[in-house]
Please model this.
Amino acid sequence: MNYRHGYHAGNFADVLKHLALCELLRLLTTKDKKLFVLDTHAGAGGYDLGSSLARRTGEAEAGIVRLAAAPRAGMPAAVVRYLAAVAAYDRKFGPAGGKPRRYPGSPRLVRAALRAGDRFVACELHPEEALALKREFAGDRAVEVRQADGYKALKALLPPVERRGLVLIDPPFEATDEYERLLRALGQGVKRFATGCYAVWYPVKDDAAATFAADLASLKPLILELHLQGIEPGRLAACALAVINPPWRFEEAMGEALPWIAAHLGPGVRATICAPPA
Ligand SMILES: C[S@@+](CC[C@H](N)C(=O)[O-])C[C@H]1O[C@@H](n2cnc3c(N)ncnc32)[C@H](O)[C@@H]1O
Model:
């Protein structure tokens, strides 16, 4: 396990995933019923964009940094809310303004959206990242951090007693069998908890991604994609988020937000939304 999300925090892939995550959380917390959230691959929780890791790739510059500097006029509401969540996290570390210095990982975004009585379990397998995650939420009883295999957690924790849930599955795709493991675990999760909302991130870089999307088809996901242009070979140029059982109005919100994001992330950036056949 060599992957460290600190190299990639705030990049275009995080922008897509976290924009969608914020909107899913918002829509799922409008109902006055308790929600369970499971983050199977949680990472460290929060990231310093000035760290040597982040500076080594500079990926946040073409992601959250560019977006945070975009004009507010005409900005879709979902993007405004996502940027507000990022800024709120950044403000914990000093006065707001200028370039974002810290970037919230998925557990921080989930935590910010939780209401009293909602439940959140964040799994992270890597010992150092899990320790960082535990430190990030030390003393916070609303967040249960487990140093555990997130795929096994799908089986162990679903269905939740709340009967309403959001599951984020965001693996590092280091292992050659990641797609297979993910499909197997997701299948088990959906079998146990068919009405849950699942958001699954994956890289779009070769035939494996197309095969994976085809394998997901029976679950009727809404698929959001973001494609960059002019990326040097070997670096990630496109990614997707497959959302199974999205809440009402999610597709509409993404339909407004994604073209705007694409237009403001740089020339040639392309977003697509693919809805399952009715
Ligand atoms: C892409 S990062 C997660 C980023 C995070 N979800 C976010 O959006 O801020 C993937 C993480 O999964 C962890 N990981 C790898 N295999 C895992 C497994 N089987 N169970 C839980 N975590 C795992 C890696 O250590 C890494 O921190």
Notes: The beta strands are 36-39, 46-48, 102-104, 119-123, 143-146, 165-169, 197-203, 222-227, 238-244, 270-274.
